[in-house]
Amino acid sequence: MQPRDHSFWPFTPKVSIITAVVVLLVLLLITGVLRTYTGWPADSSNNTVLIGIFILSLLPIVLAILNVIIERGGSIGYGDLKIDFSKIQQLSNSGFTVPANIGVRGEYVADSGTSNILETLRAATSSGVAVIDLEDGHAWWETRLLVLLAGADRLKKPDKIVFTATDETREQVYIGWARPGDLLEQLLKEDPRYLKSFYASRAAAAQWALLGPLELVPPFSYYTIPPPPPWMQGALALNHNWMAFSTATGLPNELLSEQLLQHELGETIENKGDARHISIVHLDEIFKPVLIKKQIDKNWTNEEQTKTLFSNEEPFIVITESGKYSAIVSTQSLYNEVLKGITDSKR
Fold first, then answer.
1. Are 246 and 206 in contact (CB under 8 A)?
2. Distance from C-alpha of 58 to C-alpha of 39, rounded to nearest angstrom
3. DSSP symbol at 5
4. pLDDT tens digit string along 10-36?
5. I want to staple 100 with a disulfide (CB 3.0 to 4.6 A). Which of 119, 139, 329, 342 is the partner?
6. Around Cβ 127, how many Cβ atoms within 10 Å?
7. Neighbours of 22 (CB within 10 A)
8. Does the structure show a pLDDT above 60 at 1?
9. 66 pLDDT band (50/70/90 cuts)?
10. Is the domain of 84 the same as that of 182?
11. How far is CA 335 from CA 221, 246, 304, 339, in A?
12. Cβ(95)–Cβ(158) under 8 Å?
């Protein structure tokens, strides 16, 4: 880094931002090495350590802001701190809105009917953000949300779930967001049948995964799905070999675990009329410990927006417009844009 002068922080905003990114990557690398060779940090301390790393990585940006304040001769007002939403829109992710109940409303899904949800699941798990619109509280069942969360947690994508709903006459009002793993942990506590079905489906899918891709056997031009091998156990695995592979490609069904889970939930819960709807109130009852509700609204004053931004402790924050969900964006991206706005105003 080439210093500019004898300022409190003599480096340019661009260098400060690059330094912040480098510090973040180095600290993450060091933490990864320590975890591999020493077992530190423990799983219970992961979140605390990651938050600490994130805060430390912001130090160059904070110093750059302080330098601007000092050069201006004292203080900086809220009028100087502005979020340019036209630029933020390019950095944000509005996500994929998952069709209600994974595309099958109001009817139970099991066995061959589970194929109807696969395309929707594939689309949802290919996006970084999944939006669940609860609508009037009758659009989603707990069982379908469980299937979606199980897939997201296993595949690590989407890594953010955003909830919206209809509040009186306003549609797609932002309710909160959370990480799939946190949501899954809470939802599995709601019914013992959820936990049993969850583990049964993963155990069955894991057994089929041991077989690997199928071989094309001449003279056939398609792949023949084999019968369950003698060592395979459990009715769920034994009775659903047709789900395990694609007859067109011979490749394993990457969503087999979720398809089997839906079958189990459909047979044991949905078919008996036990599926519970998720309303705004019920969502809060289930996920209150993990649901993140903080937001920045485009129609707020600069003071309200910046106060919310700098009080946010999460790496992401939701942008709304008159309460309606717009996108979710990296907190650091917002910090960077605010910093750029301050330095640009000096010129």
1. no
2. 26
3. S
4. 777 778 788 888 888 888 888 888 888
5. 139
6. 19
7. 12
8. no
9. low
10. no
11. 57, 47, 15, 6
12. yes
The C-alpha atoms of residue 4 and residue 10 are separated, in whole angstroms, by 5
Say if residue 185 is in the same domain as residue 197.
Answer: yes
- CA 108/CA 139 separation, integer angstroms: 13
Of 94-103, 112-121, 157-166, which has the strongest mean pLDDT? 157-166
* Same structural domain, 69 and 180: no
**Which is it for strands 295-297 and 316-321: parallel, antiparallel or unpaired?**
parallel
Residue keyed to tokens 């309460």:
323
**By CB neighbour count within 10 A (0-12 exposed, 13-18 middle, 19+ buried), where does 88 fall?**
buried
For 169-201, how does the pLDDT look when each residue is reduced to its tens digit (9 = 90+)?
899 999 999 999 999 999 999 999 999 999 999
Q: How far apart are CA 118 and CA 120, in angstroms?
A: 5
309 lies in the same domain as 320: no
Task: Kindly indicate the confidence band of residue 73, based on its pLDDT and cuts at 50, 70 and 90.
Answer: very low
Cβ-Cβ contacts under 8 Å for 250 (sequence gap 6 or more): 213, 214, 215, 216, 223
Separation CA 187–CA 133 (nearest Å): 17
The answer to whether residue 6 sits within a structural domain is no
What is the pLDDT at residue 58? 81
Separation CA 49–CA 169 (nearest Å): 42
Q: Which domain holds residue 67?
A: 13-92+301-313+330-346
Are 174 and 166 contacting, i.e. CB atoms less than 8 angstroms apart?
no
The amino acid sitting at 267 is: E
Name residue 133's beta-bridge partners: 164
C-alpha triplet 191, 257, 237: angle, nearest 5°: 95
User: How many domains in the chain?
Assistant: 2
Q: Which amino acid does the sequence have at 61?
A: I
- Interhelix angle 142-155/256-268, rounded to 10 degrees, is 160
